[in-house]
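Record type: monomer structure entry
Structure origin: computed from sequence
Chain ID: A
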Amino acid sequence: MMPGVSEPTNPPRRGAFALAVVALLGLHLLCFNHFMPLAVWWTDQPILGVDYETHVAQVWRAIEGLDGWGHSWVYDVQLLAGTPAGVIFDADNKGWEVWTWALHRLGVPQGLAFNLFAVAAHWLLLPVVFLSARLFGLTRAPALAATAMASLLWYFDSFAHWCWWVGMTAYAFASYLCLLPLALFYRWLQTRSPWLALATGLTLGLTHLVHPYSFFILAAPMLALYARSARKLGARGHFTVLAIVAATLAINGWWLAVSLRFWHYILDSGYFGLSGLQFAVADFFELVLDTATSGLIGNRTGFRLLFLATCAIGLALWRRERDPRWLPFAAAVISLLALSYLGAYTWLFRQIQPYRHVLPLAFIAVIPAAAAIHAAIQRGALRGLTVVPRLALGLLAIPAAQHLIADVTYYTPSLLPKLAPLYNNGWLPITTQGFPAQPDYRHHVVTADHDQLPAWVREHDDGQSRFLVEEPSLGEQLSWRTSAQILGGFLYRNLEHSHANLFRRRKEGIASDDELLAYFATYAVSHVIITSKHKSWERRPKVLELVATIGQHRIFRTKISPQLLAQGGGRVEASTNLLRVTNSDPSKDLVLRYHWMETLRCAPDCAIERVRVDSFDTVGFIKIPAPHPADLEVRNAYP
């Protein structure tokens, strides 16, 4: 018998196992269809909302670059006064970009191709966890149990649910996908099969392509496995390990090289997922301490804690029995626990949102947890108990089941009985609306009124000015749904170019009239779109004029004459990777209110210099010294 492989003493009947598989598939399908109905994803309309808007914008720019210039990055003139799109900030989106581009090239509508990545993330969970469990030596029944646990985590653990609902889909995907290269590496070290080594390199590279934080998930367990086997590997074995590393780098090298080229623009990223030991206590009692860490969702951790506790039992059994599986899982659990709850105490790990690693921690736990349950059943652990312990366990199971059912029903408020009207006609001392509606955290079909604001922007965009947009996801959406030039988007974009966004500079955009006028002139702002309820924007008659209200959005026109050319005269037409200037004054220096970038080149017979913007924006604008042609082009010249 192979080490680390547990054989059943009473193999399950095929009929019973097949029935269990069908039941699991049915339950997973039921949940999937409830939270992501067919009408949401089987369409050329990409899934929208919150982080999805950012990822759509990133994917669209990558496809534009690949189809137009053969590169996955571009100089994006529509966002933040010119910014490199496809570098650094979208490192967590490369797999999604390649997936969408490849399917689109095969004839799949672009929006549907984008949506199918999210669908794949929901459904590959089942085969990946089952196959990984089998590679780690679990027989069919416990492997299926581990898969069922993963399905429950995917839908009913609050952080898992938050991730794929809000748009952190790639990270949720990678959180369980990491199991496969780890399992393949474990099995290769036992068998030294070339096919397993090849599969390890391929899946490890693809997992990192889906999300680069896979490195932090897998580093400890894979290094532990390698260190344990180092003396026995021999020259061929060590070469194979290096080949696996090389394959991973080769699959990801194309985007890593581009990111390193623009690394000097990177900013501090330590704004989200900053946990501490207090979050371990909060997770135990299901308390929300900071929505920027655990998500804007109720903290529901019942399944996660149950599986982690059972995992601890499984690890203890493997440790006692000297099972070789103990080492990689213990290394993974310990490192991910430390990263999740201690990582924010160091500057380095603050950059990778350390709390998010509770999700791969939970998925990794399901395999030893399932093994522990299987071992308990096989050894008849409950048969030897007397009446009193059995009764105690039965009584404890009641509140445990109640707690887990409450975690499930939290996500299905539409399926629960409706709240009866209050006896006093809905009046409460705190609110006149009664109890607030419980969000169901489902994906919904985009309604017709969702198009009203983009349509208004398209109608009023003259191509010679910019729109300042307060709400981050709306800014991202307008950048890909219109041709307008947007100052906005994800507020804490980790590139220096993000300081062109007033709301990155000033919290809630609070500034004096003079400062606002200077900012509007500097960045050629013609309109400001405000979504929040702050009334201060209506009190700026010297600076702004309210011109439209669409839903919750108020649109103001600025009281300046915006000019995209700061000096030198003429007119500029902007499109991806290109700025075309006409009718400028050849005898005067030409200054464009677009960010300078080292790959930009001017033609014919002109040069580009970098000119300072202000104390906030350190990137600088484009200056073309005189003399220069009256008509010229500034292009992104790929190296």
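Annotation 1: The CA atoms of residues 167 and 287 lie 23 Å apart.
Annotation 2: The two ends are 56 Å apart (CA to CA).
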